[in-house]
Amino acid sequence: MLTAMITRLAGRDLERRLAESGAGLSCLQYGVLRLLGNRTATLSDVSSHMLLSPATLVPVVDALQRRGLIERGLDPSDRRRTPLSLTASGTAMLAQAPHDHEYAAMEQVLESMGSDKSQLLRGLLGEMLAKLFHDDRAVEKVWAALEAQHDSRGPSGSGGSSSAQDTLPPTPSGRGD
Global pTM? Predict the structure, then answer.
C-alpha cells in the first residue's frame, strides 16, 4: 500500500539522520527516548503508544538501560509497575539526536508538489484520518496533541512532563495512540 511505502521511506530518512548525528540509536530506541522525554511510562504504556508488542520492546529498553539512557523505577503504590524514565545521559542523547526538522523530507516533497496538490493531499489524508478514527475532529485533535508535545519540549527539545497522549483520539483498535 502507498502509505506503507511512505512510512518506510520516512523511516529510512530518520535512520539516515540518526546515523549522521552520531547518536548510535536505532529508530525504535529513538522512539522510546522521545516518548520518555515527555513523561515517565511503563513498558505497557510505551507498547500501546508505539503499537508494538512488549516482547518487541524489551530488548530495546534493555539496551537503552545498559547504555545508561533510561532507568527502571519502582512504583511505591504498585510493586508490579515498573516506570521507565530518562536519565541525565538519556536527556543529553535525546538533545543530540536529530529532533529538529523531524518531518523535513516530507515537507520538502509536499513543497515540491506545489500548493494546490499539497493542499489536496493534506485534505484527503485528513479525511482518511477522520474516517479511521470515526471522528470528524480527529485532525484537529492530532494537531493539538502534536503542538502540546512540541510546547512541552520547549526550545531545547526536552522539557516538561506534560503529555499530549490524552488529547489524541483513540486508535481504531480502541487503544490510545
Answer: 0.63
Question: According to the model, what pLDDT value does residue 36 have?
Answer: 93
Q: Which among 73, 101, 129 is the end of a domain?
A: 101
Which domain, by its residues, includes 152? 114-172
| Domain shared by 80 and 10, yes or no | yes
At 31-86, the pLDDT tens digits run 899 899 888 999 998 988 888 899 999 999 999 999 999 999 988 888 888 999 99
Shortest CA distance to 33 belongs to which of 44, 25, 45?
A: 25
Residues 94 and 167 grouped into a single domain = no
Which residues make Cβ contacts (< 8 Å) with residue 169, sequence separation at least 6? 133, 135, 137, 138, 141, 142, 177
157 pLDDT band, cuts 50/70/90, is very low
Q: Among 39, 74, 101, where does a domain finish?
A: 101
Closest CA to 31 of 5, 6, 57, 7: 57
DSSP string, 80-145: T---EEE-HHHHHHHHHS--TTTTHHHHHHHHHH-HHHHHHHHHHHHHHHHHHHT-TTHHHHHHHH
Q: How many domains does the chain have?
A: 2
